[in-house]
Amino acid sequence: MANRIVVDPITRIEGHLRIEAEIKDGKITDAWSSGTMVRGIEIILKGRDPRDAWAFTERVCGVCTTVHALASVRSVEDALGIVVPPNAELIRNLMFCAQYMQDHVVHFYHLHALDWVDVVSALSADPDKTSAIAQSISNYPKSSPKYFADLKNRLKAFVDSGQLGIFANGYWGHKAYKLPPEVNLIGVAHYLEALEWQKEIVKVHTIFGGKNPHPNYLVGGVPCSLNLSEVNAINTERLAYVGKLIDDAATFIEQVYIPDLLAIAGFYKDWGAIGGGLTNYMAYGDLPVNGVGDPKSFKFPRGIILNRDLSKVVELDAKNADQIQEYISHSYYDYSDGDNAGKHPWDGETKLNYTGPKPPYEFIDVEKKYSWLKTPRWQGKAMEVGPLARCLVGYASGRKDFIDAVTGVLTALNVPVEALFSTLGRTAARGIETKLVAGWAKEFYGKLLESIKGGDTRTFTSEKWDPDTWSAEAKGVGLTEAPRGALAHWIVIKDKKIDNYQMVVPSTWNASPRDAKGQRSAYEESLIGTPIADPENPLEILRTIHSFDPCIACAVH
Amino acid sequence: MNKKPKTVYEEFQAKGHSRRDFLKFCTMTAAFLGLEYSAVGKVVKALENKPRPAVIWLHFQECTCCSESFIRSSHPLVADIVLDKISLDYTETLMAAAGHQAEKSLQDTMAKFKGEYILLVEGSIPTDANGAYCCIGGKSAMQIVEEVAEGAKAVIAWGNCASSGCVQAANPNPTGAKPVHKVISGKPVINVQGCPPIAEVMAAVVVHILVFDTIPQLDGLGRPKEFYSRRVHDTCYRRPNYDAGLFVNSFDDENARKGYCLYKMGCRGPVTYNACGVTKWNNGVSFPIQSGHPCIGCSEANFWDNGPFYQHLPSFPGFGIETTADEIGVGLGLVTVAGIAAHAITTNVRKRRALFGKRVDDSNVDISKE
Amino acid sequence: MTQVRKLYVWQLPVRFYHWNNAICIVALCLTGFLIGKPIALQTAAEASSSYWFGIIRFTHFVFAFLFFFNFMFRTFWGFVGNDYARWYHFIPLKKKQWREIVQVLKIDILQATGKPIESVGHNSLAGFTYFITFLFFTLQSFTGFALYADMSTSWFPHLFAWISPILGGDLLTRQIHHILMWGFIIFAIIHVYLVFYHDYAEKRGVTSSMIGGWKFIEEEKETEK
Ligand code: HEM
Ligand code: HEM
Ligand code: NFV
Ligand code: SF4
Ligand code: SF4
Ligand code: F3S
Ligand SMILES: [Mg+2]
Question: Is the CB of residue A21 less than 8 Å away from at least one CB of chain B?
């Protein structure tokens, strides 16, 4: 007998996600992913000034803050034919890199780690042994026996208080936890260290964008000015600050994140064969070195991999009306030409129409509409997007930096390349690209200094700022790679106002409900076959779902 | 986990610290809070006798950046708040438990600390479609917030979403999004405004409630005066440029490179109450204006509908983007002048006709003599 | 025979108020307009060497106080002054006043011919218009002082501090304050025109009446009270 379980809320994610799954003989046989919150931001954007859109769309998500702002200004710049000055591109790239480093590290420690690390087990760790393990995997200075003993005491006092706070009712003691107490203690230690660390790297946003979360962007460049003879602008002190933040971040990633990732992954190699899901992967690519118009120059290459065939990278065109389309067959929306139509975002429609059960409800009706996410498809195919897709596209494009990084991890874990197509692969890919990004950040930083040294301090072009210079009708698309995957905004501008604005977001690709043909998207597909040791405590569902780093506020918007 | 919760003092003992250490900690806390030495006794008492206060953090229509902002706090550090100062029993973003286990955490805390727990709300509450626009565990946000607010001692509304609806409540507000104070009643609601609020401000509001055991003094819009009593404009370091009439005219122009005032770029500093100019962001690194972008007024109600952002005053409602009150005023002025001109001409024609007529018809009266 | 009767209409306090008010409004519109739309000088000036915007604002505030108390004084005079100054001329509560409003509209504005207008002080339409401008004065002062409250340490502006929260914040308060400026400008244009127009059309010495206080009424035979 199949047994339907519900996990709602899925916690340690951004947003409101519900998973329903059918379990038979200790394995998931079918699964449904439902986003349960909507705001209608695409509707709200209609009729507004395109130059304001970045601020609205940035509020789609505060976890991947900045990426929607970036996609938005790019879409407007594409529509109006604006090319931003090189310095603006470099500053945007630096903000992009800072976002990746912060977001990925927070995901690993604060959103994902508790799926693998048993906090209660850490109480029985031996501080001396812990120290020895820590020192054997990394040069991170905070690794003395005393350090771990203090931490253990703090943890013990916390647990003894009887108030477990965020750790209450976790799956502690679940038999899927495999780490020895000492590695668990390292995990807890770095959970706390990472919590302190993450608030530093975001200061790159604060310096260039004035605040984090939600730094400021600008159509036509960046709002900050560079001026080496002014205390009121980005000057040498500010630049030095950025340099230090990047260096410190890179050190943390190298000394803490990557060693922990490898150490923990080493105990869970079986997850290299679980949670693979879809076989198609897509990346828009990002981090332009020569402007957004030259995708060949991107640090993250653009492309599609079909059927896990790493020998070939397929090209994509976001402006082609037949390639990217969104369906609503199982989503709470109406289309003017029927529920089974697929729409390219320039012709996209957002009309809310809730047809699900009236709250409070126990189950959703998965035969009908069951989610607030639309269902995007590339030429009718379901795609996985995200760190794994990016690594695979980079790897398959023959890019040396990717091949080296990926092989390095595969060798360290002693697993074949096929292990990438899995829950473990996704989590590893996130670490791999974080390390690459840390390196690129240093490169961009150097380029920015060089450019200033060369006498170019422009950060903004006012050419198309005045709406009177715009044509009566314009269309644009802004592509980027958000931490969770391929992100794009499509804009239609008419009479200086937004006529249509559509966002197709990474988590929309991954977490969407079935399409008109009944094909599953990434979350649902990846759960099929996942072993569930105890349906009352479905830790394994969290592992695979968390490996995507869900963001449902993004996905629905 | 049904043990009696420990007080902060007991926790100190358990960690192997002496009472002297504890007193020292209290003195430092007091100093941090700017208290007189005589007030130290009060702090000692407050921390000695209370278990860590139970806190429930609910998430509704949000972007979660208030949570993100909160974890950026550097004084106090968020780990210290969460592990030592409060017991954060429910927050979907960070809690280990999920699904039924998460719901259990919520129910346990509501039952055990009825009337005692502090409720923090992030996000707005959709009121249309029976609340179906935001559901958690099958219940609507409306049902959840009413149920949880019932037993709360105080309610903090995080950010613009929970304080005034934020972006999703912007016109046409497709989901009927409402802020907390419009959905619950009979509870004090503290609106910690901003999109998001500054991390240290968020932390300080929590600390204020814990240590002083009162809710902070609020302004007319429910914001703690401690952080929202000043306009950004009044604490802005570019203010001397404003007074001197030195304004940026276009981004990255000569004036922008000198850091002149952003008033003409639409800066909302003069109508926005927030601590940005003083407390600044991310441990004092910068704030929007310092980094060259005008304030968009993110701690004010309805700031999204007061755009376009790059224009000093909002567009005139009902007219297109970019149509300011001034353009309409000038238009009306011209119409007036034209009307007057027309009026003056007809007056003249009429009067002349009257004069002419009089002369012909009534030659006895010589009106021209006067 | 036509006879010209000299009538003392505007008492000194009313005239004093009027010109004070006119000066204040002109100054407030000029400075207010600049506050709303300052010129950005592309100069190498240092903030420490200039204070022009501060002075503009200061001027605005000085005239704001003058304007407000002058207006308060006029309101007071509306209860103690002579008949022409009384408040009931401003609020059309009587049928007669409404009839006159229609009449004035016909004769003055639409330029139809008809029975001349009887009123000596303001006619009912003028009175009503002034009543509306008084509402504008009130709104403008309230929004102005509400904005000023947080820039001031004095108790007086704080009496108006409750206004912004009702309007949801300072931005709408400011928007209203700004839009009303155009109300003042348009009123002033029409008003000054009409004053000269009446002089031209009726020859009662309206223009000078606001200076000397006297109007000159042309009468056929009987005098109207
Ligand atoms: C005829 C009467 C008045 C007119 C036409 C007038 C006009 C204006 C205008 C156009 C602005 C600029 C608004 C903007 O675009 O931001 C302004 C600002 C202001 N006005 Fe007035 N105003 C008048 C009376 C008053 C009064 C009675 C006060 C009372 C104190 C006042 C206080 C202010 C304040 C505080 C500001 C904002 C100044 C700043 O933030 O620097 N105004 N006024
Ligand atoms: C050339 C300049 C002006 C002249 C000759 C003038 C003359 C007059 C006259 C004759 C009246 C009485 C109207 C009536 O017969 O009912 C009057 C009333 C009034 N005027 Fe003016 N005016 C001038 C400018 C202004 C200006 C610039 C303002 C302000 C915008 C102004 C505001 C008023 C007001 C508020 C009243 C009503 C007075 C009251 O009874 O309290 N005037 N003016
Ligand atoms: N999905 C998603 Fe985002 C990301 N990364 C954005 O585009 O998280 Ni909030
Ligand atoms: S107030 Fe702003 S920052 Fe906070 S959740 Fe809402 S949109 Fe995000
Ligand atoms: S930049 Fe904005 S807040 Fe600062 S002085 Fe100018 S107008 Fe005021
Ligand atoms: S936009 Fe917000 S962050 Fe501060 S400077 Fe303005 S209140
Ligand atoms: Mg969309």
Answer: no
Which chain B residues are Cβ-neighbours of C171 within 8 angstroms?
268, 271-272, 297, 300, 303, 306, 313-314
Q: Is the CB of A14 under 6 A from ligand 3?
A: yes
Range of the domain at B298: 230-332
Query: Which residue of chain C comes nearest to B268, CA vs CA?
Result: C171
Tell me, yes or no, whether B201 lies in a domain: yes
The verdict on whether A391 is a catalytic residue reads no
Instruction: Give yes or no for residue B270 CB within 6 A of ligand 5.
Output: yes
3-state secondary structure chain B: CCCCCCEHHHHHHHCCCCHHHHHHHHHHHHHHCCCCHHHHHHHHHHHHHCECCEEEEEECECCCHHHHHHCCCECCEHHHHHHHHCEEEEECCCCCCCHHHHHHHHHHHHHHCCCCCEEEEECEEECCHHHCCEEECCEEHHHHHHHHHHCCCEEEEEHHHHHHCHHHHCCCCCCCEECHHHCCCCCCEEEECCCCCCHHHHHHHHHHHHHHCCCCCECCCCCEHHHHCCEHHHCCCCHHHHHCCCECCCCCCHHHHCCCECHHHCCCHHHCECCCCCCCECCCCECHHHHCCCCCCCCCCCHHHHCCCCCCCCCCCCCCCCCCHHHHHHHHHHHHHHHHHHHHHHHHHHHHHHHHHHHHHCCCCCCCCC
Nearest residue by C-alpha to atom 6 in ligand 5: B261
pTM, to two decimals: 0.88
- Of A108-117, A535-544, C107-116, the range with the lowest mean pLDDT is C107-116
A302 noted as active-site residue: no
Ligand 4 pocket: which residues have CB below 6 Å? A 59, 62; B 62-63, 65-66, 122-123, 159-161, 166-167, 195-196
**B139/B234 same-domain check:** no
B114 and B218 together in one domain: yes
In chain B, the number of structural domains is 2
User: Are 3 or more Cβ–Cβ pairs between A and C shorter than 8 Å?
Assistant: no
Check whether C222 has a pLDDT greater than 70. no
CATH number at residue B207: 3.40.50.700
**What is the mean pLDDT of each successive set of 10 residues along chain B, which is 370 residues long?**
56 62 60 51 54 96 97 94 94 97 97 97 98 98 97 97 98 98 94 98 96 94 96 95 92 95 96 97 98 97 93 73 75 84 79 56 40
Please give the ipTM for the structure prediction: 0.90
**In-domain check, residue B132:** yes
**Nearest CB to A352; choose among B174, B238, B308:** B174
Interface A:B, Cβ pairs < 8 A:
351
What CA–CA distance (Å, rounded) separates B310 from A467? Answer: 12
Q: Which CATH class is domain C2-39+49-220?
A: mainly alpha
Taking CB atoms and an 8 Å limit, are B255 and C42 in contact across chains? yes
Nearest by CB to B340, from C37, C182, C193: name it. Answer: C193
Model confidence at C1, pLDDT cuts 50, 70, 90, reads: low
